[in-house]
Structure formats: C-alpha cells, structure tokens
Backbone:
C-alpha cells in the first residue's frame, strides 16, 4: 500500500527544525523528500554531534529523506536548480530575509521555471511588519509570543525545553498547508507561495492565552500594560510591575486541586478531572466528601485561594499513603483520568507504544540501529510512517543528479571541483 502523497517530489532546502520537520511529516505520508544541503551540511548536523556530520537533533527531524550536498554559490548551481525545480512539486525553505533571492531560490525565480511548484517558506516573524528582518529560533519565539512568560508564572520566565513548541508547530503548519496547496493544484493546475513563521505559530497554539473576551479581558489587560509603562517611566524593573500579575496567574494555576500533579509514596501522578462528574468519582476514590460537587453547576476554578489550598493539602496527604501504580489502578477502575508521571526512558519498552507502533526501528547509515518516534497517524487506505532513517550528508548526491539527467562524467567532474559532495559507506 502506498502513502497518500506517493509520487509527490519535495525539495527540502530548510535547516534546523521547523522546515525539516515539515519535510519529515511529508515523507511519513509517502512523499519523496530530497534534502539539498550546502557542503558543510545543515548546521543542525553540527550541534551536539555524535558522529561526523550527525547529531541527535538532525536525525530526529530528517527521517525518510535523501540528501544531496550541492554548493549553491557556485556557477554550476543555475543549471542544477533549473533541472531540480522542473522535477519538483514542493520546495521547502527557511532562509533569513534576502538570502533566498541572493541564492536564486526565491519564489519568483523558481515559479518562473515551474509554475506548478508549491513553495513553502518559514521565517522567524513573517514577511511584513517591524520584526520582519529579525533573526529568530524557538527560544526567541517563545519569548516574543508570551509562551515563556506563561510557563514562568510566579517567577523568572522559563522556556519550554523538553521540546521546541514553536518550531514543531510551524513545521506542522507547513506540512498541513503544503497538503492543502497540492489538493488545490489538482483543481487549478497552479502552484503557489505559502508563508508560515515561528512567531505566528507561537501565537496560534496558545488557544487560551491568545483569546480575549473583550468585555471581560480588555480592561485588565489595559491596566497591566499601563502598570508596565508606569514602572518603566519611573525607572523600576519590569518584575516590580508584573509582581501582582504573576501572583494572580500562579494563584489561578493552583485553583483546581482535581487537575494537578501529586506526589505519592514512591513517585508522582497526574490527576485530570475537568468536570464535576469526574471530580465526584475522584472524591469517592480518595474517600473525601466535597459537597460542592453534588451537582454540575459548581466551578472549581471559582474556589478562593484559601479553600483551594486547603483542599489540595488534604488530597496531597491522601496521595502520600499509596504508590503511583496503586492510585492509578483505583482511579482507572472508576474511569477517572489519572496516570503516573513517566520518564521518556520508560516508554521505549511500553506495551501501549509497542501495540500501536508509535516507535519505529531504523538503520542509520552512520550510527547504526536507531529507535525513534513513528508517525502517530494511521490511515485505512494509505501507508503512513517512513521506513528510512535520516540520510548521511550527500548520501544520495549521485543518485539524485542521475535522476536529473546528469551523466556519470558530469557528476564526477562536479565532485572533483568541490561543487558536489558524495558520501560513501565505509568499506
């Protein structure tokens, strides 16, 4: 069975995380993705390397692709691009502003060669506005979109470090929009330009913080901003102006004792009850009587700080009496969402992961056997999840150039001149 995007040819000129993750998602859907890299390779290969030109970060967002290493700054690049773009359906890029045009890989140049090309570009902040020239990575986007401030409620702002939320969200938006553009091309025959950004993705995934019910939220927001301006004018630190705001936010985060992580006798569990039916069941398992839960009208988030703290303290004491597995089993028997806090190391041998094939075993050409996250999507009429690892730098240079019509002699000359780098498996 083929993938849903079988036959779609993607050129991935992007680096680091967002663009490559989009290419990986397209590969998981059956697209043929060829990563075009400069002689030194995607810089992500060189960050915390575990082997020459290989890193965990790179391997994690480039599975299912081929690699060609071609120096686009050389005169030979013009002919290469003409052939490659004529062959391609999709082009992925995430250059700094102005770089694509200097290299001759901007949308205007490439669509003139292939009007059916779907060109998807990710930038840090978007192509318009006062921030458009700024550089940015996930950390900067977390800072500029407020994600970091939200995570650090009650203290110093903290980034999300276990993953890269704006990078990965932008990559998902890229893949989603490319699929939509390919569908539209089937009806119109025309390609198009698509733009995403880390900044826009960071705003889009904050479905609650970035929602303002103006009748209720505008006045408090204006007051907060006024307090910040006053503090700045008075030469005070921003933290002084935000102290009350952060205290309120931290207080709100503690207001729901039925949606909280608790320490048990041996570990931690996450109790997640978002309605009063589940809260009543949880109270029953815990052996407590909470008369406020007797009907469905009570809003637990409306508890005042003292009442919330008292209830949380009571529940904390109860959780200390048993193990995480014991509590999880008791809540599961009642249909209450509750689970142990796991380490990622534990998931590699988890039976649920194995049953759903959420991990895939691959053979990497440089580092050998690897296990990594599989596509979480399953389709009844199409194959999902690539069976190829990420490529070595230039691993498919000769094959890809051959597909573009270059002769063996031409490829050898490009290699000798240092225009093309070809990887060879060690003997």
Residues:
């Amino acid at each position: 069975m083929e993938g849903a995007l079988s036959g779609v040819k993607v050129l991935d000129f992007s680096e680091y995380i967002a663009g490559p993750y989009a290419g990986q998602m397209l590969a998981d859907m059956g697209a043929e993705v060829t990563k075009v890299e400069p002689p030194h390779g995607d810089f992500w290969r060189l960050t915390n390397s575990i082997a020459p030109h290989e890193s965990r970060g790179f391997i994690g967002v480039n599975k299912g692709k081929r690699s060609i290493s071609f120096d686009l700054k050389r005169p030979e690049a013009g002919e290469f691009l003409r052939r490659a773009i004529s062959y391609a359906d999709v082009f992925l890029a995430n250059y700094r502003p102005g770089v694509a045009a200097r290299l001759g890989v901007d949308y205007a140049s490439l669509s003139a060669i292939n009007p059916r090309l779907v060109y998807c570009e990710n930038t840090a902040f978007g192509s318009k506005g006062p921030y458009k020239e700024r550089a940015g990575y996930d950390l900067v986007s977390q800072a500029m979109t407020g994600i970091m401030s939200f995570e650090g409620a009650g203290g110093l702002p903290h980034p999300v470090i276990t993953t890269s939320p704006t990078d990965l969200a932008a990559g998902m938006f890229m893949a989603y929009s490319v699929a939509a553009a390919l569908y539209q091309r089937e009806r119109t025959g025309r390609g198009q330009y698509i733009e995403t950004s880390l900044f826009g993705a960071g705003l889009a995934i904050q479905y609650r913080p970035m929602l303002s019910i103006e009748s209720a939220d505008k006045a408090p927001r204006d007051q907060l901003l006024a307090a910040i301006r006053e503090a700045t004018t008075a030469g005070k630190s921003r933290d002084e102006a935000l102290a009350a705001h952060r205290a309120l936010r931290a207080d709100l985060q503690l207001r729901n004792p039925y949606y909280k992580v608790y320490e048990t006798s041996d570990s931690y569990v996450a109790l997640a009850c978002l309605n009063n039916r589940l809260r009543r069941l949880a109270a029953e398992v815990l052996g407590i009587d909470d008369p406020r839960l007797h009907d469905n009208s009570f809003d637990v988030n409306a508890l005042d700080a003292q009442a919330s703290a008292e209830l949380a303290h009571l529940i904390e004491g109860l959780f200390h009496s048993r193990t995480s597995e014991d509590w999880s089993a008791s809540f599961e028997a009642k249909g209450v969402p509750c689970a142990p806090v796991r380490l990622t190391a534990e998931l590699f041998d988890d039976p649920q992961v194995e049953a759903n094939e959420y991990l895939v075993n691959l053979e990497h050409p440089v580092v050998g056997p690897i296990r990594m996250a599989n596509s979480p999507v399953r389709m009844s009429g199409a194959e999902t999840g690539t069976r190829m690892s990420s490529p070595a730098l230039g691993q498919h240079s000769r094959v890809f150039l051959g597909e573009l019509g270059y002769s063996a002699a031409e490829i050898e000359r490009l290699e000798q001149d240092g225009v093309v780098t070809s990887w060879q498996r060690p003997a």
Q: What stands out?
A: The CA atoms of residues 229 and 303 lie 32 Å apart. The mean pLDDT is 92. DSSP finds 18 helices and 14 strands in the chain. The longest strand covers residues 32-37.
